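Dear Dr. K.,

Following up on our conversation at the group meeting, I've run the structure prediction for FAD:protein FMN transferase from Paenibacillus aestuarii. I'm pasting the input sequence below exactly as I used it, so you can double-check it against your construct before we proceed with anything downstream. Let me know if the numbering doesn't match what you have in your notebook.
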Amino acid sequence: MTHGRYEHSFRAMNTRIEFKFQAAASGVEPLLLLTQNWFETVEQRFSRFRMDSELCYLNRANGETCLVSDHMLEVLQLAEVYRIKTEHVFEPFVLQALEGAGYSASFEQLGVNSLQSKQLYHDHKALAPSIAIDARMKSVRLPAGLQLDLGGIVKSWAVKRLASYFRKKRGVEQGLLNAGGDLLAWSSDPANGHPWSIEIEDPWNPEKELGVMSCSEKAAATSSKLGRRWHNQQGAQHHLIDPRTMRSSTSDTVQCTVIGEDPVECEIWSKTICILGREEGARLLLARAPGYEALVFTEDRQCHMYGSSASIESSWKSVDTGNFHFHGLMKNG
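The predicted structure tokens came back this morning:
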């Protein structure tokens, strides 16, 4: 049976979803339908902007124990793992801070210049309580008074879950799933037999390409402070909340791309580095996630690569900003 290379893209979860794969012509339409249905289902379950979503139901429970779906249980368990792994830099209890900064509706529906903020003061230590999870009963209890935003983990989780299903159950041997920069590539690009190539955008000029990531059996995720950004009476705001202040992060990092095996891990660490800043964030990445590498862009328009020197032309192809700094795999500053 002849197989061909196919591409499909659509919008879901407030971003562009892209699926490239090889399959028999007769199997293409079912795969495309599955892809769209999956991301629409994930959005319906986890969106903070849909009042009938499971996430909003949990947030309204205000400290009461709730039965949850298998998918919600899985994501909340992952969230707890990464809260600990990142020393609470990845923090899902930031919904009130996002809304307080003015991000109270889906971004494309907001008039960016009219976003209003509220004064919110939080003690970071007060966010220490964990989500009470009973896996056997499939129940959870959120700390009273705190509300979840799972936008920092759900896209990459959705990519990982669907890619695994396609590989194990649908026999898709070559593919690339990309949800707004959170991606997983497996095998090679059937167009040329080479690893998949993903463009690296210039943080300050999205139309410009700074280089190419070469991915085969690799995941990647990119986080940026420059995309979802607005101004209000408190100054520049963006969606990456620093849990130590419960305000938009003011670190030196404006964009970070992390590559490794797991798209969820990549997404968590790309956000962590953006929040903590280049040096502290990269130090934590290299200590807690061996084998993962980061390309960090700072506000002074410098580019910093943390990883193996062998990756510069194998994974990070032709990255050239004119201000490139290679730091290697150091673990202690």
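Two things stood out to me. The helical segments are 25-46, 54-61, 70-85, 95-100, 154-169, 263-276, 278-288, 311-314. Residues 140 and 310 are 44 Å apart (CA to CA).

Best regards,
J.T.
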